[in-house]
């Protein structure tokens, strides 16, 4: 079942290094950077998939807005909210004039991480390299893999 106010058709799956997934869940990271603009309706639920070595679905958050900004402005206005150092930021957006900021709120840690093998059993899940979209019924089955 979709939550009130959120896109009722699908959710976003974000693949994140474990330290960034944790920073989102603790509220230390409220801006996720991407090189390309995701095709989402605002607000959208995002599932947080922590990549290796964790390889688990660890929580959710809500993408409440998205902005494409020049990289210098992105760092100046939002750099401290990205959990990146300036060299990491520069390396990630090297060669780009603009970057995309996903503004996150309402982080919610799952009671226990859902490991990749359980996600594959529940929904034939394949972790995306960067991001993917799942229908809300798929999202429910992925989260139900906890049980």
Largest sheet: 6 strands, mixed
| Average pLDDT over all residues | 91
N-to-C terminal Cα separation, in Å? 17 Å
Low-confidence stretches: none
User: Which H/E pattern describes the elements?
Assistant: EHEEEHHEHEH
Return Rg in Å. 15 Å
Describe the structure.
- A hairpin with a 5-residue loop joins β3 (44-50) and β4.
- The protein is of the alpha+beta class and 147 residues long.
- The two termini are 17 Å apart.
- The protein has a 6-stranded mixed beta sheet with strand order 2-5-4-3-1-6.
- It is built from 5 helices and 6 strands, in the order βαβββααβαβα.
What layout of secondary structure does this protein have?
Layout: E1 10-16, H1 18-26, E2 31-34, E3 44-50, E4 56-70, H2 71-78, H3 86-92, E5 98-115, H4 116-123, E6 131-135, H5 136-144
Parallel strand pairs: 1-3
Antiparallel strand pairs: 1-6, 2-5, 3-4, 4-5
Helix pairs in contact: 4-5
């Amino acid at each position: 079942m979709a939550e009130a106010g959120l896109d009722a058709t699908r959710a976003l799956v974000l693949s994140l290094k474990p330290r960034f997934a944790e920073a989102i869940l603790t509220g230390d990271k409220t801006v996720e950077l991407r090189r390309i603009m995701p095709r989402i309706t605002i607000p959208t639920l995002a599932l947080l998939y922590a990549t290796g070595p964790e390889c688990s679905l660890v929580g959710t958050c809500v993408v409440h807005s998205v902005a494409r900004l020049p990289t210098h402005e992105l760092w100046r206005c939002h750099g401290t909210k990205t959990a990146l150092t300036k060299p990491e930021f520069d390396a990630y957006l090297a060669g780009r004039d603009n970057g995309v900021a996903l503004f996150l709120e309402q982080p919610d840690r799952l009671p226990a991480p859902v490991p990749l093998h359980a996600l594959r059993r529940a929904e034939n899940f394949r972790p995306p390299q960067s991001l993917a979209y799942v229908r809300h019924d798929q999202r429910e089955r992925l989260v139900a893999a906890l049980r």
